[in-house]
Fold:
Amino acid sequence: MIGAILAVAAQALHVALMLAAAPLLAGCVAWLRGRLLGHAGPPPLQPFHDLVRLLRKQAVLPDGASWLFRAAPAADFAASLAAIALVPSFSRGMTTAPVADLLAVLGLLAAARAVRGLAEIDAGSSLGAVAASRTLVMANLAEPALMVAVLTLALLGGGTNLGSLAGVPHDTGFGRWVAQAFAVLALVPVAALDLGNIAVSYHSAIGLALRDGAAWLRRLLWMSVLALFLPPFGIAPPDASPIAWLPGLAIWAGKIAVLAIALAVTQTVLPNLKSIRIEQALGAALLAALLGAVVLFASQGFA
Structure:
């Protein structure tokens, strides 16, 4: 009984943490980019002010837009929130731990991406339709690299459950560490593709607020997934007391801070990063995933 209560409490705290941290992360990255470029930059709490401003406005819909366009932002936000609720942050003992599968998370992200693309097509603009179609096609091209990387991580962790992946023992061989590094590296271009915004958006007011919130949640989600593989691991085990959550929370926040700094520095040093052909990035991701699988099987063969 106590274990179930702790699991529910951990889940509620996790969801509240994600909802609060996602806009703050976006604001901190924008502020840090401004500082690196030599100007003040927007305040870290600016995303919260933007959300309040958008919620006060009246929505304007394109002519001929159907119910799909109107429902897309809410569906996008719901799918993103459901996906990030499955990714452990400070504890592996949440209510969703038994179903916190990496494939389920990727499926929810794919559903959100499809809804966004269909909404832009439904808006009736040729420019938006072309941009959305290209995003969906690139997502299909990313699947080979994604599946090979997931296979490698599943062999390392004994399954695709994120709790088991976060609990991979530290004393595995050097070859297994290299294989994990290549597999995680392959996820980075896929994450960049999923975080890429569709060029044209016709949502406004609450619809735009939901789309921005979903984008911030997806950014935090991918960083949380990558943080599971950054040492020290530090995540609290299942059935741990709330006292054990505090170190896990601190370590998770530190990992997210490191990844946020890396993102801001990358966007500042490489301002034309978006101009790089996504096909080349996905090809590099597939190569990294294949190298990870080869190193894993080779290390097992020589063990």
